[in-house]
Amino acid sequence: MSAERARLEELALAAIAAARETAELARVEREFLGKEGAVGKLLASIRDVPPDERKAFGHGANELKRAIETALAARRAMLERERLAAERSAEDFDPSLPARALAHGSLHPLTHVVRRLEEIFSSMGYAILDGPEVELDYYNFEALNIPKDHPAREMHDTFWCDREQKLLLRTHTSPVQLRALERMRPPFRAIVPGRCFRNETTDASHEHTFHQMEGLVVGEDITVGHLIGTMKTFLREVFRRELEVRLRPGYFPFVEPGFELDVRCPFCERGCSVCKRSTWIELCPCGMVHPKVLRYGGVDPERYTGFAFGLGLSRLVMLRYGIDDIRLLMGADVRFLEQF
Ligand code: FA5
After folding, report:
1. What residues form DSSP beta bridges with 203?
2. Residue at a domain's end among 36, 60, 89
3. Which of 108, 208, 211, 306 is most buried, by CB atoms within 10 Å?
């Protein structure tokens, strides 16, 4: 074996040293290291070696392979250096020519807004959570106090993955409320930015795939006042000025009382197309976490209270950047995305 190994090594190194181009090196590599190459055949012949010599044989063959690989890499680097040196010394080489522009991507507007929101809420002590997009009926509906046949299920046209297994694409980020309650001990604060899916007809303000950001705060003596204060703070940070907010009653089975939070239109004073001439924009359903939900999550509603909100993230992005059609967000049109 050692004689054969030495012979092959000598042959390979000579061929490598003689190669003048990378294509030639590739040919040498195939000839020695390819499946049908000399080293490959040597390795395959291990079958015919007596068992007590196999270890040394394999070791020797692998060393040979490594030696050839090292010589190939060194020769390749040398050929590349020679090529560059030749290019630079050519008469028409002009080092003052501008470099070729590198095409680089940009962040999606949603990513910009999510990052900003994560900064704002982290600075207020919120944890940032994630949850599964393929969710169980239990978390998406049942434990959120939306039992089967409850009319509120109609608000969520659901994409079912497997009806028998009760698996679906989550219709909102609220299931993570339950997952957080199960895992975190109060007091805690958390936000959950994420994708949601609804089987509905799309238009300029509705998509089948869109983003929400859930917020959940649980502790002793948490009140609606905390909810309003939090909303005002985050809106001030996003729009960089104080914006008036108002609460209207809203119904969601997992909060009691439930509200719709509207924000004074940041674009006009007397009404515009964004606020549909009303000067108010509906932004964020919210409310005090229903005691049943706390109980489902293993938290004592006699001791703890909490608030939750479900910000329409896609709509906030549209407001922030003046985008008038939600379908642009998931449309993957590079001309649109390049603007951010
Ligand atoms: C919910 O999804 C509740 N989970 C929100 C909630 C959380 C209430 C916590 C109380 C406490 P709703 O179905 O209204 O609620 O959706 C919330 C927001 O998601 C809407 O205000 C809207 O901005 C956005 N949204 C809903 N459906 C779509 C859609 N098809 N396309 C784009 N955005 C949507």
Report:
1. 206
2. 89
3. 306
- Domain span at residue 148 reads 109-337
CA of 205 to the centre of ligand 1 (A): 12
C-alpha 253 to ligand 1 mean position (Å): 13
For residues 56 and 203, membership in a common domain is answered with no
Q: Could you tell me if the CB of 200 is within 6 A of ligand 1?
A: yes
Backbone region of residue 105 per phi and psi (left: phi > 0; alpha: psi in -120 to 50; beta: other values): beta
Q: What is the pLDDT of residues 119-156, one digit of tens each?
A: 999 999 999 999 999 999 999 999 999 988 888 787 77
Give dist(CA 122, CA 282) in Å, integer.
25
- Please check whether residues 126 and 195 belong to one and the same domain: yes
Of 145, 181, 210, 218, the residue with max ligand 1 atoms within 8 A of its CB, to mutate for a pocket test, comes to: 210
- Determine if ligand 1 sits within 6 Å of the CB of residue 196: no
Q: Which atom of ligand 1 is nearest to the CA of 202?
A: 30
Give per-residue pLDDT as tens, 272-300: 877 888 999 888 999 999 999 999 999 99
For the chain, what is the domain count?
2
Residue nearest to atom 27 of ligand 1 (CA): 206
The answer to whether 162 touches 183, Cβ cutoff 8 Å, is: no
The span from the CA of 288 to the CA of 258, in Å, is 7
Cβ 316 under 6 angstroms from ligand 1: no
